[in-house]
Design a protein that fits this description.
Aminopeptidase, alpha+beta, 34% helix, seven-stranded mixed sheet
Amino acid sequence: MRRIALMIAAAIMLGGFGTYRVTTKKPPEPVIVINRVDDAAYREPSGSSTLFVLIIGSDVRSGDPAAGRSDSLHILALNTATGHGTVIGIPRDSWVDIPGHGINKINASLVFGGPALTVQTVEQLSGLPIRYWALIDFSRFRTLVDALGGVDLNIQYPMHDVFSGSDFEPGPHHLTGAAALAFARDRHTLPRGDFDRSFNQGRLLLAALTKFRKDTASPLRLFTYLASFRSLVRSNVPTGELIKLAELGRRADPSHITNLVLPGDGGSAGGASVVFLAPGAQDVFRSVRNGGVL
């Protein structure tokens, strides 16, 4: 069994998007990578211990997801004692310092140096100690959602975008992998463009966690999930640690996890459209540093 407890995010990725039907006869190739950062090991919940996980969505359609740009970046800050936390969306065009490469869009960090450099860039930006990262691309995202059995989501406004393929009216929807990807990619029909897209991606993460908690109400179902997880995930996280992360995912309460996107303004730099993060971004990071809750 190799490989957050989502799509765990420690617990969200590992548990939620990591689900796979045990009746599948032919195990698929791994669809997600979940790694521990250096030697950052899981610590038993105590006091206001906070777990930080970076979830990276690559724009690669097929092939090595680390070869593309990180078009979706979210930090899961989770208080391991209370199960409360925050999902922080980072706009993909955020104009930041990438260690060793100067100022650039944050999504270029994946191209320049893979997940390790993306983690380093986010840690430098936020001051938060990332302990795990998860990486997935477009096609594998569809596979994960379908393996999960789809996710339920209440869509709040009409979404009809020929570029992403979204075609939704307001109301409750059960999203297959293809529909979830279309929802997650749509920015052209949203009031705040990429900011709203990042917010919607955070909503999908929490919808996956909600389903995971419902489906693993019994310890037996949890271990069934973890057994099938082996065929979907590549990871350097030890088995015992994965089990603890999955249990943490079961305890996390989506209704007490705030979903937000870092504040900023659109502009131009280096001949490209970029996002200049507002001072309020650092306020967000300071707020979640000790306890994970905004």
